[in-house]
Write a structure and sequence with these properties.
- Helices cover 37% and strands 17% of the residues.
- The chain has 5 helices and 9 strands, in the order H-E-E-E-H-E-H-E-H-E-E-E-E-H.
- The strands form 3 sheets. A 5-stranded mixed β-sheet has the order 5-4-3-8-9. Strands 1-2 form a two-stranded antiparallel sheet. Strands 6-7 form a two-stranded antiparallel ribbon.
- A hairpin with a 5-residue loop joins strand 1 (67-68) and strand 2.
- It starts with a helix and ends with a helix.
Length: 223
């Protein structure tokens, strides 16, 4: 009996390995690859979307823009061409959610610092105060890497239109003074075609972990 098992041992091992391979192949064929949704304005809370685009159901993309980063460089969509990026809205003097959001952006920056596909973009909502020198000082204090993360300022209406009509991430009811718009804690994941692929609570560590997972899922679309 022992001789019988010894004789066919290697054959049995071969059949076992072959079975594992076949089962794995079948599983991969039958399990669809996860893909992120493409968000349209009609899929988002109407409170965060400008009335002019609330009914849009397809082909929504981030519109053209021309803003200025912490170095005074002109930033347009060309900078993010063929790149994935995470966008948000903040202001340098914010003492509520912004410090937490910035810390999480810094965490993301560290994780993608060597990733040539993924970048960051933060828009100030009080551009009249957050000038280029103010953004430069803020960037230095926080440890922003210029080659990876743009903090941008510019025309107030343009930024507000981007927030409400493109990124779908801000409320329009402000205080009637410096703030005509209330930015949210949302981080917005944008793909290489300038489409929104995810929204994440920038104050929630679990949401940031999900964002990092989704970035990897999104990257697979381009392989």
């Amino acid at each position: 009996m022992l001789r019988f098992f010894a004789k066919y041992k290697f054959f049995g091992i071969f059949l076992f390995v072959l079975s594992v391979i076949i089962i794995t192949i079948i599983y991969n064929i039958l399990t669809p690859e996860k893909r992120l949704p493409v968000y349209q304005p009609d899929m988002v809370n109407a409170e965060l979307v400008d009335s002019t685009v609330q009914e849009v159901r397809k082909y929504h993309t981030i519109k053209d823009f021309k803003l200025y980063n912490q170095n005074g460089d002109t930033i347009t969509p060309d900078f993010y061409r063929d790149r994935i990026y995470v966008a948000d809205f903040f202001f340098t003097t914010c003492q509520t959610i912004c410090p937490i959001m910035t810390d999480h952006m810094l965490e993301i920056q560290e994780k993608v610092k060597d990733d040539e596909e993924v970048f960051l973009l933060s828009h100030t909502v009080i551009p009249n105060y957050d000038s280029v020198p103010v953004l430069r000082k803020y960037a230095d204090e926080k440890g922003v890497k210029d080659e990876k993360w743009n903090l941008v300022t510019g025309d107030k209406k343009e930024i507000y239109d981007l927030a409400r009509k493109s990124y779908l991430a801000a409320k329009s009811d402000g205080d009637g003074g410096a703030f005509d718009m209330i930015h949210t804690e949302n981080f917005v994941l944008v793909d290489k075609k300038r489409r929104i692929r995810g929204f994440y609570d920038g104050t929630d560590p679990d949401a940031i972990a999900q964002l990092m997972e989704d970035i990897q899922i999104l990257k697979k679309e381009y392989r």
